[in-house]
Records
---
Amino acid sequence: MSALLELEGVTRRFGGLRAVSNVTLAVPVGEVVGLIGPNGAGKTTLVNVITGVHPASEGTVRFAGADITRLKPYQAARRGIARTFQIVQPFSGLSVLENVAAAAMFAGGAAYGDAANDEAMQHLRFVGLGEVANKSAASLTLAMRKRLEFAKGLAMRPKLLLLDEVNAGLNLNEVEAALELIRAIAARGVTVLIIEHLMKVVLSLCSRIVVLHHGELIAAGAPQAIIEDPRVIEAYLGRRYSRAQAGSNG
Amino acid sequence: MKRDATGAAVLFALVALLPLAGEAYWMRLGTIVLMYGVLAMSWNFIGGMAGYPSFAVAAFFGLGAYTGAVAQKFGLPMGVAWAGAGLMAMIFAALLGLALLRLRGHYFAIASLVVAEVLRELVNAATDLTGGGMGLNLPIPAMASIDAQARFFFYAMFGLAALTFAATLVTTYSKLGFGLRCIQQNEAAADMLGVDTTFYKVSGFVLSGVFVGMAGAVYASWVYYIEPPDVFDVLFSVKAIVMVLLGGAGSVFGPLIGAALFLGLEELVWRNYLEVHTGVLGLMIVVLVLFLPKGLLSLSRRFGRWRPLA
């Protein structure tokens, strides 16, 4: 098991606040790893540290064996780290196709013009947006915008895909569809790090889970071990969940 | 792109025929509209495509004018002086861009506005080189007649406008133009998608400077006397912006159409309302921008007939 992404003693401070504190973790190649934690635990900040939006104050981030701690976002993107945003950010003045073509061109290395457009079209069909390729990105529904984020992520030809709450705001059917999509992406050999609040999603997708609380890594391991870990239950899942667990077992 | 290029070729061919009209007034007007066109098309690179509201046009214009003038003062041929002015504006824009393009929105606008003032003070102070506040005389071009001279500068400005337009066309249909559009839409997201935003923005800023610098140098040779308040006039920046907004920001033909329209209005109003002409002009611009915020070209899109931008 070799690690695609390794964080070692990563700390990110904003003034006096330690949003992420001394986090060490490894994401193995080809796995789907869940990153969970209560609101304000530092999950998104950790993604921002990895992608270079807010570089680590201390510690190192290694990706595919190279130190990427100080890389800028566009450099990280070109190395194969794609992310989706918690709040979707399409270029609303461009068409759906152009949005994905931009990703293919600037991060994926596709040539300007037909090459990028053709590749973008493939990804749009894959996520089920082939029909709306020429519409304005602003006209899409929230669920479609989330799919657009997937298509953009794929067009970047990523080794690692960081999914930041891609299911927030979706209804149950839409979540099911998104789950299928994430599985299909993982089946292509893309390593996935997913931030998620829905435990159902995390438990059904992830082979490993890491838990952040107040910026610190409090647990990491297999899903079953995580949901039985008392610190996790206390910090994140709460007493009600543990009572329900006890109820369903007995 | 082919349709745009064909349309432009026809347009430029028509403009090139203007000297046949022969009248000095039309020659002068033609030269000015081409110069305005260069300023507007240049601003479009950074303001229209990338969405950075630059007020640096006056700075590039004055810098180019003085670079060309000083070069000619030291005996360099006119063509070399113009090229040197372009080069100077290019280097200046690259360095300035690296510093200023970290700012966004109003902050960038204000910072770019101050640049012309700083350069004007520097030129004022460097009396030995530039003549300071007394201005600078250029060698009067040795030409057969006043008419020949007028025609020469008309075609010089024409060539520069054609060059600027070609750069606009190439940029619009290339990765650079696409990247600038992404930055205009959402810079943080563009960064995440692998757009080297600093490089793209600086490239756009350099494009917005180089042709303006050359236009300044051609202008200096044309009027053969320049002084700091004349060539570092903030109105150059304002006019370029207004022209682009009139025509349609970010588009290929918008800046040219805006330049022609603006000069037309300016002449018309100036002739008919001599005493209040700036006021009337301002009012008309406000009305136009208010009712056509995306410029005149948006009319053609709204009615869906003529689609030069498709």
Note: DSSP finds 15 helices and two strands in chain B.
---
Amino acid sequence: MTASTYHPTPRFYWLVAGALAVATAAEVAIGSIEFFDPIKVVGLFGLAAVKFAAVVALFMHLKFDKPLYRGLFLVGLLVAIPVFIVVLLTFERLT
Amino acid sequence: MAMTTEAPAIDTYTGRRGIWAWITTVDHKRIGLLYGVTALVFFVVGGMEALLIRLQLAGPNLELLSAAQYNQLFTMHGLTMVFLVIMPIAAAFTNYFLPILLGARDVAFPRLNAFSYWLFLGAGLLIYSSFFLGGAPDGAWVGYAPLSTQLTEVVRMDFWIIGLQLLGIASIASSANFIATAFTMRAPGMTMMRMPVFAWMALVVAFLLIFSLPAVSIGLFQMFLDRNLGSLFYEAQAGGDPLLWQHLFWIFGHPEVYVLVLPAMGIVSEILPTFSRKPLFGYPFVVFSGASIGLVGFGVWSHHMFTSGMGPIAEAGFGIATMIIAVPTGVKIFNWMGTIWGGRVRLRTPMLFSIGFIAMFVIGGLSGVTHAIIPADTQQHDTYYVVAHFHYVLFGGAVFGYVAGVYYWFPKWTGRMLDEGLGKLHFWLMLIGFNLTFAPMHILGLNGMPRRTYRYGEGLGWDFWNLAATVGAFTIALSILLFIINIIKSRRGGEPAGDDPWDGRTLEWSIPSPPPVHNFDEVPVVRGLDDFWYRKYGEDDEGRLLALETAEAEAVPQRDEEPEDIHMPDPSYYPFVTSFGLVVAGFGLVYLGVGGWIAVGVGMMTALWGFFGWSLEPVTREH
Amino acid sequence: MTTTPAAENVPVEHHDAGHHDIHPIRKTAMWVFLGSECVFFGAMIATFLLYRSEFADGPHAEEVFNIPFTSASSFVLLMSSLTMVLAHHAFEHKDLRRARIWLMATALLGATFLAGQIFEFTEFVREGLTVRVSPFGSSFFMLTGFHGAHVMIGVVLLAAMVVLSLSGRLYSDRGLNIELVGLYWHFVDIVWIIIFTVVYLLQV
């Protein structure tokens, strides 16, 4: 069917799901526990990014699929993120 | 070789005749023709709106139109020309020729293709129905809040909002279709860098649309919610910000202008080599520049907002980016000039319009560069100088390019040539009329005449050039009339064209005029750029062209009977049903406050029926 | 040169003699769509970030958000991605029965998430956070509302596939396709990953 050669097993998917659950728990902890306040923003964005990447690369199979698909998705991300960061920066109310 | 006098290939092949055949067609060529004819009709309508505007402005203090009527006219003129004329005409050319130029038999999703057309038509009719339902949108084609979020006794801007949303859906569907086609359906041997420039430009445009439309779509949803649900996105008093609308609109709006002009640049890139009998100068640079324009085009949107108070850092950044984008554009211009230089130039009508495109676009580009200088732009903003700039690039540029495309490809669609004498007359009249209309607007703008104002007073010094512009506008109208007469006359009575009347370089000239429904009897195997040219000609020792004996036999396989084992996708009415449902739902949304929910429900159910019928229907029925 | 029979698929790769691989064509289109959805949701997230402190006279984020509840919802949606990929895996291995079970599980988890959203929203409205009370309210409900609508469409597609599989009409080369619906479903999940972090966790 597709040109991919890597075939993950259900066990692999369960493991990834477990890791995602752990990451979510960590996020909630960092978000709620005052002790983590200094690293709150970086920690949360970092964990969210890792979860995002894991689902895209592994569940959506992008890591093992045609480069074309990766390109299409990345262009979308690489347009959206800088453009909207610039929009937010032109407003003065970033507090 | 199959010679056609009438057009059997456009006739039905499954026994369906007439209107039903057109409603259910999934043939990219027919869909292209539908787009083209519809765009032409809207062009005439938009042109008449422009003539009314010019009549009102022909002299000071005229009262041909009230302010309210004037606002509707210039709003609809802009909306019509951008969304209902230029985008569809680019879609017409892309639909018709992208598969053929790539050596394919159709696009990736023929039914989705049909859906895009019917949704476009329905959205256009929805927007225009507003004239008969109390009044057309009147907040300018850019719809700035808070003017556009004000509610008036008669619904107006909601037609604009819903119409644009529907058009956006149609465009995104088309773009996904064309991207899938270009990446997966090229003929064997046709690498990306062997695709014709027009195909490349169509691809870049598709990318621009899918990544820019969602931004304005969100802006439009937010505006709709502000108007209909009392949300506070653009409500400054409550902590919202109208400037957010400007950002979201122009994040789409700027890439949009490249959407309008890049296909025309692609067409010119096909015409110049053909009529100079030379390959395109610097093909990789032309391609790469087109892609760069697309990419950088996402980084300049706030140059439409230089007077909105963003602060010096943002303004400087966008100003620099705007200057940078002139560079790849310049690269293209020089490559086109390099193509013509030293060639054996034939000044036929397509070539005249292409050269006109280059000259007019350069003028428009230069005034654009002056806009990039922020202090200068501060004076130019919202004056007629801007109107001059964008008409030079969009009319002198894009429209001239698309008209060139019509003269170039009319023989392929119909098997007949357009009249050359009428064509040349059209060109000169349009060139003179166009410059007479818009050149004075540079002066008017610098002398302070504001945009979007229904009348001006006496003694301001604007009378003479306004009158000149009005005369110019009617000259343009006359030239368009000649164009339409030419088209109607030549469709049946024009000189028979044959397959390759211009001695072309690309694949569309290797198949009959008009093409059979399956395009190619045998899918070509492509050996290089301009493959068809090199099947016709070799070169002798001194580099002169040598017609190859075997060219004809190789270019078009000899077959007398219709190939029977080529199955084209069957016609389907589901695309029409789905788009019809969405348009009905759209009307419901416009009239949400007064019972529109019913129409929304009915429309969505219809669209859902269409969607499921479509996905469960096989592409080709078993024969 | 061979005559290519069907029109919809003349892919560049011709290795499989006679086999028309429609799948890359549809998968390309789906990734194009998902790329555009990045900009779509990106615009809403940016709007939310712009208005995240614009409470006007309405309730503040920390007054209404219930992090434990939303965390549970997020977990549910995350697990639905697992069941989705397991459904696809089973289908690939021709185990239609197992695929159907995992599809139903995915739809159920999705519906549970939606129920949680509806409950949460009605609570917020009761506590005074509405679309009209503040830009914060407007942007919150638009972002989560659109996300919820995407989930709902996903649940409908999943249910449709379950029904089709019962009558043996779930194919890999036409109609609704598990892999493509899966890509859509996972995308909806990753959007929520961002929303949960940016909207909920970072505002309290």
Note: Chain A touches chain B through twelve residues (CB under 8 Å).
